[in-house]
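re: ur question from yesterday

yeah so i grabbed the chain u mentioned. its 326 aa long if i counted rite. heres the sequnce exactly as i have it in my notes:
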Amino acid sequence: MPQITLIEAVTMALAYEMTADPSVFVLGEDVGVNGGVFRATVGLQQRFGPERVIDTPLDETTIAGLTVGASAMGMRPIAEAQFEGFIYPMIEQIACHAGRLRNRTRGRMSCPMVIRAPWGGGIRAPEHHSEANEALFAHMPGLRVVIPSSPSRAYGLLLAAIRDPDPVIFFEPKRIYRQYKEEVADDGEALPLDVCFVLRDGSDVTLVTWGAHVKETLEVADALALEGISAEVIDVATVKPLDFDTIHESVRKTGRCVIIHEATRSGGIGAEIAAQLAEKAMFDLRAPVERVTGYDIPMPLFRQEMKQLPSVPRILAAVKRVLAFS
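ran it thru and got these structure tokens back, copy pasting raw so excuse formatting
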């Protein structure tokens, strides 16, 4: 079984599904000849031809429109937005058509499509290249929003997203595209959408996160273990629809919760999780819910990026505050 990076797992999943299903095709800016900005589609045009790996004009609105139209006609397109900050011209097609088609036609039609985008900060890029805008899409009815956090989850969740009968926004945390490797079998086994993954069992505090910050959160859990503190770590993975039951079950056990995400604080997925905990788990909580997030500012440029993102010390400080509460 090969050890591969997250970006290689994306390529592997795309190739597997394109081989298995002739209705699957890829389109986007520079995805063919160049294999994509981050090389997620490298080699696919040579393998499957330019009719199935299509280099488009630099026009995100048209890419989204073609994707919606093709999926409505029974194809399974996978569109790439080069960066999540370039996805905004696609929103009219995503919100007004992709997310509404099943409801608009009373189930007679749907949009089995995926829009992939490199997501999040940490690569010291200009501002439109480093955004975490998952809450914007989670607010739109009719969409799934998926963010993998490891090579194996990227492979299994992307397969599930491509096979899903409805539109999926698939955000790939580019900070960890090549950060580490793990064994991933190219066996076509999809992972379930709409469920959280409990990465570590614990009894003292629940740590809820997704995307690249799973890494820092696991580091925090390791540091806490050295102090005799048992932290349960949950990778949300599908931020819409949210698997609140898994989070609630953990909080029933631990009584404390810290939510970590790199998106800005106001109106984020963390606020939604905290609201549901207030509504459904108030009497299970022994301390107020803490959020460790990005700040409510545009992503700073270049070297300042990492100051915007939650760090191990910030997460540890939040955990200590909920543990000290009585």
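noticed a couple things. The radius of gyration is 20 Å. also The longest strand covers residues 257-264.
anyway ttyl
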